[in-house]
TrEMBL record:
Belongs to the ABC transporter superfamily. It comes from Thermosulfuriphilus ammonigenes. This is Cell division ATP-binding protein FtsE. Keywords: ATP-binding, Cell cycle, Cell division, Cell membrane, Membrane, Nucleotide-binding. GO terms for biological process: cell division. The gene is ftsE. PANTHER family: CELL DIVISION ATP-BINDING PROTEIN FTSE, IMPORT ATP-BINDING PROTEIN. SUPFAM superfamilies: P-loop containing nucleoside triphosphate hydrolases. It is found in: Cell membrane.
Amino acid sequence: MVRFEEVTKLYPPDITALDRVSFSVERGEFVFITGPSGAGKTTLLNLILRSELPSQGEVYVEGRPLSRLKPRHVPGLRRRIGIIFQDFKLLVDRTALENVALALEVQGLSLREGRHRALATLEAVGLKGKENKYPPQLSGGERQRVAIARAIVNRPALLLADEPTGNLDPRLAEEIIELFEELNARGTSIILATHNQSLFIERHRRVLVLDSGRLIN
Ligand SMILES: Nc1ncnc2c1ncn2[C@@H]1O[C@H](COP(=O)(O)OP(=O)(O)OP(=O)(O)O)[C@@H](O)[C@H]1O
């Protein structure tokens, strides 16, 4: 699904965000990426999205080398990837349903079909009955569920999550990870970056450890 081959990412003048990183994530895998602040986790996700290009080495997504992907094919790549951030990035003046349905608009789905799919997805993440609430009327955990619904409504092959439980208390964080487990069980590949070890301890998932841009495990 994703392969890094000796990937180095430099930021001028002297930051080595990633240093000769190599790993693969197979289709259907659920992998955690951890390491302290500044270790390179977000940079690694940005490279998969082709928001950044490597200084050296190559990133492959579904076998395609991203440095050779034509700019006009980048939107197509990103449509196959769902993204979830720590700070949700929801539109506060749109309802939960609208936030999720908007992700489908670009696909040319009819409004009716879009709302139908958005509603089903909100239900799948445990938000039945909350579809007409605006983000400020929802709890932190509920807002993160809306963000997850928005990321998966397109049925992406791959889900990237960057500190998706960062602002949530441990119980809600656990619930969100359970939700990822369910998505993974239904076939979505997941790469989840977090500095919070309690999220993956005892989960028996593969954990990639970054330290100062180096993969140390
Ligand atoms: N656009 C950029 N320009 C310059 N330096 C950057 C840029 N993006 C990241 N860096 C630097 O690269 C290094 C890795 O950053 P990155 O955000 O990938 O780490 P992280 O592990 O995600 O950290 P955090 O957990 O704090 O988000 C850091 O030293 C950071 O300051």
